[in-house]
Amino acid sequence: xxxxxxxxxxxxxxxxxxxxxxxxxxxxxxxxxxxxxxxxxxxxxxxxxxxxxxxxxxxxxxxxxxxxxxxxxxxxxxxxxxxxxxxxxxxxxxxxxxxxxxxxxxxxxxxxxxxxxxxxxxxxxxxxxxxxxxxxxxxxxxxxxxxxxxxxxxxxxxxxxxxxxxxxxxxxxxxxxxxxxxxxxxxxxxxxxxxxxxxxxxxxxxxxxxxxxxxxxxxxxxxxxxxxxxxxxxxxxxxxxxxxxxxxxxxxxxxxxxxxxxxxxxxxxxxxxxxxxxxxxxxxxxxxxxxxxxxxxxxxxxxxxxxxxxxxxxxxxxxxxxxxxxxxxxxxxxxxxxxxxxxxxxxxxxxxxxxxxxxxxxxxxxxxxxxxxxxxxxxxxxxxxxxxxxxxxxxxxxxxxxxxxxxxxxxxxxxxxxxxxxxxxxxxxxxxxxxxxxxxxxxxxxxxxxxxxxxxxxxxxx
Length: 462
Ligand code: FAD
Prior knowledge:
Its EC number is 1.8.1.4. Belongs to the class-I pyridine nucleotide-disulfide oxidoreductase family. It is an enzyme of class 1 (oxidoreductase). By secondary structure, the chain is α/β, with parallel strands linked by helices. The chain has three domains: 2-144 and 269-331, FAD/NAD(P)-binding domain, CATH 3.50.50; 157-266, FAD/NAD(P)-binding domain (3-Layer(bba) Sandwich); 343-455, FAD/NAD-linked reductase, C-terminal dimerisation domain (Enolase-like, domain 1, 2-Layer Sandwich), CATH 3.30.390. Helix content is 32%, strand content 26%. It is built from 14 helices and 22 strands. It has helices at residues 15-24, 39-44, 46-63, 79-103, 160-163, 180-192, 211-224, 277-280, 316-330, 359-364, 380-384, 413-425, 430-435, 444-454, and strands spanning 2-9, 29-33, 107-110, 112-117, 120-125, 128-139, 143-145, 157-158, 172-176, 195-199, 227-229, 232-239, 244-250, 253-259, 261-264, 268-270, 303-305, 344-346, 351-356, 369-375, 391-397, 403-410. Helix 1 packs parallel to helix 9 (316-330). The structure holds flavin-adenine dinucleotide. Flavin-adenine dinucleotide is lined by residues 9-15, 32-36, 39-41, 45-46, 49, 112-113, 140-143, 160, 181, 271, 275, 307-308, 314-317, 319, 347.
């Protein structure tokens, strides 16, 4: 039996960040990981998906730059090399996580943790079983793709992990579920050359983003030839040697679509089952999530939980943020979570990014707001990039202009949203943004101009 002061379970962006912050706070820390350092994010999530997205984007740009005078002939994709590049990026980051943990004197234990009681876990790796007692634990076990019984995962019925390592670019791909993971991957494979159909059960794809934003993405998906079917229910799949036939129902009519693969992205389930938590008496919220307070403490006082296993968006930076709060709380600090300035990004074409409240959410909370928009089409850099689609929208308190939200759709939205998160975090108003000098010509100027619109002093609008 080994004693550990702070035991972290799971080495994803929640767990490894929590472990490092805990050592910075003077704690003696051990991290247990059953699969891969860096978690889903580095190995089979954020990073490899962004590699495929950026390769697809580059290919698409090279193929379609005739308007800019770049006429490329015979552009080819070497899929083996793409996969090698992707795996190389993943290895660099995973090695980096290992180096950081070791450099911060975190003990790394390979194996699967199972709770015996509120101070003891059993860690199993193959035939090796070791018991650890701990003073405090931080659970950061993440999530896994939901498997629906009529779409059992196989060689042809794949989840997001399978989609990142396909042996070839499918000629035809069906995506079930138009959330951000399905739409990002569908869009990436379309750029890589697949004929893509997205089947979504809800009224629209990319729920959670404003309709005026998703319209821009949908228009572009259509331009690429991606078929988006909404209000449709997937009924079943038949597999054959070369692929699948997917049956779905839309508007009371049954339809089929053939493809080489069907990618099922209908959500992710928290990894809170099969690890003895019920016996410890931890309280669960809905859908397998754990109940936590503002310091990420579960109903069992010495056990904290962070990331995909607790309420909120399943995003890597949210997991890391909570990891720091949990580690600081264990050290007796008063740190608490405040989710208002957590951005969410969808790496479609163009990108979508949001932070804080949109107009509708603010109104639903009874907050009186004003909003202002500025288009990419009126920005010199956006035109030079041949990326005129999109807008920046700011949402502020009606009375004093305090910024409480921003929505961006357009090229570079994923980076531009950081300025808005900072503005909200720092309690800035629209005038502060308007008064900040932004370099010319940059996409950042769009944000400044939206702020000028908000305060009624726009230069580039009549
Ligand atoms: P995870 O990263 O899931 O890590 C949990 C770790 O715990 C895993 O390594 C697991 O092996 C380990 N573990 C589980 N149970 C045990 C146990 N009993 N014992 C020991 N170890 C255990 N988020 C973004 O912010 N941006 C993106 O662009 C983005 N893109 C994504 C793309 C895809 C295709 C997917 C699938 C996800 C994406 N995400 C993205 C989501 C992001 O990956 C997750 O929100 C994030 O990884 C959650 O971090 P975590 O630390 O909570 O858990």
